[in-house]
Amino acid sequence: SINFETLQDGLMQMSVHTNPYERKKMPNGKWELGLNFDDINESGIQCREGVAKTYKEPASIMVVIDFLLCYRVPIMIKVYCLALSGYIYLGSHMGNDITTAHNGS
Question: Is the pTM of this model over 0.85?
Answer without folding.
Answer: no
